[in-house]
Amino acid sequence: MKPRVGVLALQGGFAAHAAILHSLGARVDEIRKPQQLASIDALVIPGGESTTMSMLLERSGLLGPLSERLEAGMGVLGTCAGMILLAAEVVDGRPDQHCLGLVDIAVRRNAYGTQIESFEADIAVDGLDAPFHAVFIRAPAVERVGAGVDVLARHGDRPVLCRSGPATVAAFHPELSNDTRLHTRFLAGL
Amino acid sequence: MSATDDRAAADGATATGGDKAATGTTLVKRGLAEMLKGGVIMDVVTPEQARIAEDAGAVSVMALERVPSDIRAHGGVSRMSDPEMIQRVQAAVSIPVMAKARIGHFAEAQILQALGVDYVDESEVLTPADEAHHINKWAFTVPFVCGATNLGEALRRISEGACMIRSKGEAGTGNIVEAVRHLREIVGDMRRIEAAGDEAELFAFAKRLRAPLPLVQEIASTGWLPVPMFCAGGIATPADASLVMQLGAEAAFVGSGIFKSSDPPKMAAAIVEAVTHYRDPDILAKISSGLGDAMAGLETATLAVKMAERGW
């Protein structure tokens, strides 16, 4: 049975994730309303503007039901803004910004500066033979890693790919660099 | 230096430390546009307006001295904003900040890049500085968005290095008709190219559109522009936002439509939600209710200046 993967489609780079998941054989649902959560086996939270997504999670009524599904152990992949939303603590966020708190890390928003500092670089990822080409767009940085969180990749000293139970979070955008290995691994883990 | 050289330079590694990180590449520039999809970029003229926009859920703000409807009313030459004003907006919000340079005015763009803005809009809303040449956008680290009224114009801007296209519409009118015309024009031609029977038809499309053949060939194989396409110029209500999204826009720029309405925080939040739920009439009915007055609109036939005609 193909897994049914939801991609949170409130705002951001959801289409690129959906296209990759679809190409890997998953059934993909765009998620904008609480009632759409019932049928999915796993979720991707894409990059985008985390403050916007946080507000739309609340206004759409998704926040509570989504937290419940995640706390019940649903597999989830969060990239960039998705990492920020899934973190336990956000530094330099808005005071009213919601943290889903699934991964015990502290994340600083826009840690590298403005768009001019955005970059791409090869990183070594645990369990992958060849480097992964990672794209960092106004990226967040992990400033604290709690117990039970595995760091799977770093750029310089900074953790950029972390896993905690069923949740994987990346500070970069695996959906932008034409490399499906992290999505393949995500689907294989479901 | 040719545009090809600039493009090669843009895609080469700009080493930062020992990590072989490359900044200002095409992927990185287009990447931010990808992340703004499904969002609303709002024109703001003060830090207070920028905060209202961020509080309402804007994904980015465009810092400028006057919104387009006031530029129209004011007349005269309209230029890049005062850097101090842009910096105050940057200090007021944590979301990306864009700013406008005049068409062809690469010195204004250089200043905006030095200020660290996140996107430069080479915009027809300002008075053009060059009647033949647009800015060579490959030469910059900061990404550019440009307006287009048709597919040929969009592809010429992309060939000059634009990493996001916005359909122009007619800024400052609160009238959606031009935005709809431009979107239908662009999307319709993409559909016709995708349906082309053979390569010879693509040569003819490139000629007719005055567009580079490789970009026409790319559309034939992917069905879409190589960069995101947003919509600008005339969005004044949540329904307008829904309309342009359903016509193929991937995000919305709202200029005068927010701060010329009677209740800007409410209108801003409603348009943000409308872009997310653009296919859901039940939700749109709810968020369109009780918003007060939208901005006063202008009939385009009565306009002294059509901004969309600027750009070559």
Give a written overview of the molecule.
Chain A has 190 residues and is α/β, with parallel strands linked by helices. Chain A has one domain (4-188): Rossmann fold. Chain A is built from 5 helices and 12 strands. Chain A has helices at residues 14-23, 50-59, 63-71, 81-86, 181-188, and strands spanning 4-8, 27-31, 42-45, 75-79, 87-91, 103-108, 119-123, 132-136, 141-145, 150-155, 158-164, 167-170. In chain A, the strands form 3 sheets. A 7-stranded mixed β-sheet of chain A has the order 2-1-3-4-12-11-10. In chain A, strands 5-6-9 form a 3-stranded mixed β-sheet. A two-stranded antiparallel sheet of chain A has the order 7-8. In chain A, strand 7 (119-123) and strand 8 (132-136) form a beta hairpin. The longest helix of chain A is centred in the first third of the chain and has 10 residues, at 14-23. Chain A starts with a strand and ends with a helix. The mean pLDDT of chain A is 97. By secondary structure, chain B is an alpha/beta fold. Chain B is 44% helix and 12% strand. Chain B has an 8-stranded parallel β-sheet. The longest helix of chain B is centred in the middle third of the chain and has 18 residues, at 177-194. The radius of gyration of chain B is 19 Å and the shape is globular. The chains are: A alpha/beta (190), B alpha/beta (312). The A-B interface holds A 9-16, 32-33, 47-49, 51-52, 55-56, 59-60, 80-81, 92-94, 109-110, 113-122, 135-138, 155-156, 173, 176-177 and B 16-17, 19-25, 27-29, 31-32, 34-39, 54, 57-60, 94-97, 113, 116-119, 141-143, 269, 272-273, 275-277, 280.
What are the salient characteristics of this protein?
heterodimer, A: 190 residues, alpha/beta, Rossmann fold, 7-stranded mixed sheet, 3-stranded mixed sheet, 12 strands, B: 312 residues, 8-stranded parallel sheet, 14 helices, 9 strands, 12% strand
